[in-house]
Amino acid sequence: MELFKRGPGRPRKFGRASRAVTVTLPEDVLTRLGGVDSDLGRSIVTLVERSRTRARAAKPAELSGYGTHAVIIVTPVQALKRLAGVQLVPIGNGRALISLERTYSTARFELELGDALAGGNFSRLERQTFEAIAEILRRSRQSRRVTLDERTIIVLETKRQRRRL
After folding, report:
1. What is the mean pLDDT of residues 4-19?
2. Residues whose CB falls within 8 Å of the CB of residue 95, separated by 6 or more in sequence, listed in order
3. 91 and 43 within one domain
4. How many domains does the chain have?
5. Per-residue pLDDT at 1
C-alpha cells in the first residue's frame, strides 16, 4: 500500500507545496535560527507554526484527521496522566496522543473518564479536556458512520542501567 504519491524528483521538504525564496537577515537572527534547526527553512517554518498554534488557542481535545481516519489529540494534563493504563505520547506543539495499555479498552477508558468527571476535583483545563474526550468518544460510539478501530502504537522504552560501584 503506497501512502504517498511518488513522482519524479526530490520529495517535498515540508510535505506540502513550497517554493524557494531569497531573504536577507541579520547575522544574530541567523545564529538564533540555527539554534532552532540547522536547516534555516525548517527553523522558519517551526517558528511560524509555533506562533500560529499559540495564536489559535488549541482545544483541550480534538480530532486530527488523515484520510478516512482520525485520532484524538489532547492538551497533556496531569489528571489524564494519572489514569492507570493511560500514557500520553507527545507529538509537538504542546499536544499529545492518548496511548492505552493493551489490556485497557477504549470502552473502559470512556467509563473511567465519566467516573472521574462525576467525582473528581480538577482544574478548569483538566475538566475541559476530560469532557472534550468523553464527548468525542460518545459521539463516535453513537454514530452510524464512524467505527472505532483500536490500534497499537510502538513505544520504545530505554532500560535504566545499573550504576557500577
Report:
1. 67
2. 58, 73, 74, 75, 76
3. no
4. 2
5. 39
